Amino acid sequence: METVGVELGERRYDITIDAGGLGRAGALIAPHLRGGAALVISDRTVAGLHAQPLLACLAAAGISAQFATIEPGESHKSLESADALYRACAAARLDRGSAIIALGGGVIGDLAGFIAATWMRGIGFIQIPTTLLAMVDSSVGGKTGINTAAGKNLVGAFIQPRCVLIDPCLLATLPPREYRSGLAEVLKYGVIRDPAFLAWQEANATALAACDPAAVAHAVARSVAIKAWYVAEDEFENGVRAHLNYGHTFGHALEKEAGYGRYLHGEAVGIGMRMAAELSRRLGIL
Length: 286
Hints:
By secondary structure, this protein is α/β, with parallel strands linked by helices. The chain has helices at residues 25-29, 44-60, 79-91, 106-118, 132-138, 176-192, 195-203, 205-209, 213-233, 248-258, 265-282; strands at 2-6, 13-17, 38-43, 65-70, 99-104, 124-129, 143-148, 151-158, 163-166.
């Protein structure tokens, strides 16, 4: 187990990296609930794999939680899905003492966080990411959003989670394409902040590609630490946190123009990083 703190004063929170931690989620989450109801938001694929173990663990800790699901995929990070989840919040009788638990990848984390930020003008929020991309990037930092015809993530809100639980064992159920997609965000951290981490990735590329547990554990821990530094320095992205958008400006445009779902987010970011580097070279900056 490893813990990384996100230092935000009164809103400080911990990211717990714990192999097998899903089975201990109740004990971690319980101190962050304030007596209200809990609603777990997931997609149907993830729910089929992990819903029952999580609900059982929460029940063992005295937490009564209800479950709401959407269809998987980027195209469902939408206003329509948000409306359905608001109705689920009402059915679960969520009040200002309640919390939403996001169980899933980046789509679920972004969407569930947006619901938590806007239901009753903000309730508790907890992240349990299940994809590599969500573990190393989107579950940390409080940026949430949905996609609209205007563009990707242009509608959103900042809401910091009360805690983040990362269980690398959940990656065993992740399709290979989804896993490779997440490596783009890992690569990003080396490029923007840590040359030694980038060199480590080059030296351990085969192990990373094969999802070697030791390599993955190091990649997740270092990526999370870098993301936590950026968030603590510039929570609302008025300055240095914009470095985290490397590859995303081109990548988001690609996702929208190709139709949400054709490219996975990490795939689009990987292409976007190449495009940004090429633009920098043409401008004489790189």
